[in-house]
Amino acid sequence: TYLAPLPEGYDTHFGPNLKSLSLWLGYAGNMSQAAIHSLLTCAGVNISTGQVNRLLVEGQEAFHQESQEVLLSGLSCAPWANIDDTSTRVNGRNEHCHVLGNPLFSFYHTAPRKDRQAVLSALCGGKALTYLCNSAALAYMQIQALSKPDRKRLLQLPQETPMSGEVLLLLLTEFLPHFKPRQITTIQEGMAIAAYQAQQEFAALQLLVCDGAGQFVWLTLERALCWIHDGRHYAKLMPRLSPHANLLADFQKDYWDFYKELLAYQKAPSAVEARRLESKFDTLFASVSGYDALDNRIQKTRAHKDELLMVLLHPEIPLHNNAAELAARKRVRKRDVSFGPRSDLGKNCWDTFMTLSGTAAKLGVNFYHYLKDRLSKGGEVPPLAALIHERAAQLNLGASWEAD
């Protein structure tokens, strides 16, 4: 009898080649577990459906860790990010996948809710939130119309002291039992935002590029809205009269011509051109056509002037949220085929491997080679976090913030 240690990656009957292929098919190739099992058995591999599930879900701690490192590196390389969300059913429960990224990384996090606290948790890699009562938290509560007497009562809470959600609820129950659920939510949101902006573990973003969904408001100091989203509202108008149709067509042409000027500005920004474009925005979106539906839509666009013209302050940010939408669409395609994970462990694997796959694609890394290298411990593919830092130095995604 001869005994010898198995090569790296052979901790079960199957080695890194088959494991890498299964992971690629499941998370990059969008094949269901049943289809993967059928393919492997047709190729002559004697494997059970349960073993296919274990290859896809179990023993992925190293990949989970690298996914967190990708997020830390991605957040530190730029002060802004695109963000979006889409639904995901987990063992029959409706949950929401939050998709975060920039040109160098993508990060997926699935949570039971899609409110501001859930988005903040995604920005912190899914970690439990902490809460901080300080002047920033109280300012948020004032904006959200929490009364001055109620804000004064909050001074009974520990000030400038991070606390867990459980501790906060106990303190609110003890000192402020009269608060209603909506008031408690406002307090939690304000204190969670204050704690996020003060914490040091994850780089706090300065700006989010997003659509107009309410859960993305107030989380960062600045917010940029997607021009493509805004433009879709004009495409949804359905004029019944030819003169109104002509007015809409003329305005849409002016709208997208202005968008093209913003694209040109990004390539050669200057203070003079920024002032000209701001003045042109004021003129374009102050026009009155006489077609009420169009005029109402123009007023709504004008109300978001600061968010739509954020590119004049930060030319490196995109004018649209297509990157996050395309990343979210990958989850939708995965959902179409596999419906949804059946456990929290499966949910975490969906998030981890879609994070690693999306990030590898942005960095030009072959995802199959990456998987095989990690499973066999070949050491040929550098850590994705290191590649993000290397590329970030070349792109300088926070140039306008550095200038300030």
Explain this structure to me?
By secondary structure, this protein is an alpha/beta fold. The chain has 19 helices and 7 strands. A 5-stranded mixed beta sheet has the order 3-2-1-6-7. A two-stranded antiparallel sheet has the order 4-5. β2 and β3 (105-111) form a beta hairpin. The chain starts with 15 loop residues before the first helix and ends with a helix. The model has no long low-confidence stretch (mean pLDDT 94).
- The count of strands amounts to 7
Round the mean pLDDT to the nearest integer and report it: 94
Structural class: alpha/beta
The Rg value, from CA coordinates, equals 25 Å
Strand content: 5-15%
Poorly predicted sequence stretches spanning 5 or more consecutive residues: none
| Largest sheet entry | 5 strands, mixed
The helix content, as a percent range, equals 55-70%
Principal-axis shape equals globular
Output the number of helix runs: 19
Strand numbers in spatial order across the main sheet: 3-2-1-6-7
* N to C succession of SSEs: HHHHEEEHEHHEHHEEHHHHHHHHHH
Distance between the termini: 71 Å
Short recap of the structure:
The protein is built from 19 helices and 7 strands. With 404 residues, it is α/β, with parallel strands linked by helices. Strand 1 (80-90) and strand 2 form a beta hairpin.
Which SSEs are present, and which pair or pack?
Blueprint: H1 16-27, H2 33-42, H3 49-57, H4 61-76, E1 80-90, E2 93-102, E3 105-111, H5 116-123, E4 130-131, H6 135-143, H7 148-153, E5 163-164, H8 165-175, H9 181-198, E6 207-210, E7 222-225, H10 227-235, H11 242-267, H12 271-284, H13 292-303, H14 305-308, H15 322-338, H16 344-363, H17 367-376, H18 384-395, H19 399-403
Parallel strand pairs: 1-6, 6-7
Antiparallel strand pairs: 1-2, 2-3, 4-5
Helix pairs in contact: 1-17, 2-3, 4-16, 4-18, 6-9, 10-11, 11-12, 16-18
